[in-house]
Amino acid sequence: MTDHELATLAGGCFWCIEAAVKELDGVVEATSGYAGGHVENPSYEKVCSETTGHAEVVQVEYDPERITYPDLLRVFFTVHDPTTLNRQGPDVGESYRSAVFYHDDEQRETVEAFIEELEAVGAYEDPIVTEVEPLEAFYEAEAYHQDYYEKNPNDGYCQFNADPKIRKVREKFADKVKRSA
């Protein structure tokens, strides 16, 4: 049996990132939550008030024998805009910032090198503003946020914001997508 690993990613609304990473073979679970703030056990309302310092994040449990941390980073940096400060699409504020919360020094080194490489090859017109921070605490979001896209695929926000991310994953990472049974 393989030991699973964790990655914690912030790229705007957690519904969209959660839905995108759940497409990937090797992702065991994706849990929406909050990280990077200074308040214990924040609520969605508090995080949205921009007073807690938290970002909406997705904690990804994955099998490293089926998908690697660099693979997850490639997908993450493809499905969100790492060049916009405190904004993703219609969502504006510190809670929607681009960030990678690393779990150990190996992840920190990997993500820092990954960002350096993206910058070196000019992957984006603007500089990458993704924060790279240690994960100090992860707080699971309220139950109604979990699996939101799966439960609400016809929600207008999901159709406009999550659907394009899911399509990108399916098109650009077809070799990494779960196969239907």
CATH architecture descriptor: 2-Layer Sandwich
CATH fold group: Peptide Methionine Sulfoxide Reductase, Chain A
Q: Total number of helical segments?
A: 6
Please describe the biggest sheet, giving its number of strands, its sense, and whether it closes into a barrel.
6 strands, mixed
The Rg value, from CA coordinates, equals: 15 Å
Strand order of the largest sheet: 7-6-1-3-2-8
- The number of E-state strands comes to 8
**CATH class, anyone?**
Alpha Beta
Gross morphology? globular
Low-pLDDT stretches: none
Q: Please, what is the CATH homologous superfamily?
A: Peptide methionine sulphoxide reductase MsrA
Strand content: 15-25%
Give helix % range: 25-40%
Mean pLDDT across the residues is 95
Structural class: alpha+beta
Total count of domains: 1
Keywords:
181 residues, alpha+beta, Peptide Methionine Sulfoxide Reductase, Chain A, six-stranded mixed β-sheet, two-stranded antiparallel sheet, 8 strands, globular
Give a verbal description of the structure.
There is one protein chain. The chain is of the alpha+beta class. The chain has a single domain, classed as Peptide Methionine Sulfoxide Reductase, Chain A (2-Layer Sandwich), CATH 3.30.1060.10. Helices cover 34% and strands 22% of the residues. Strands 7-6-1-3-2-8 form a six-stranded mixed sheet, covered by helices on one side. The chain has a two-stranded antiparallel ribbon with strand order 4-5. Helix 4 links the parallel strand 6 and strand 7. Helix 1 packs parallel to helix 6. The protein starts with a strand and ends in a 9-residue tail after the last helix. The model has no long low-confidence stretch (mean pLDDT 95).
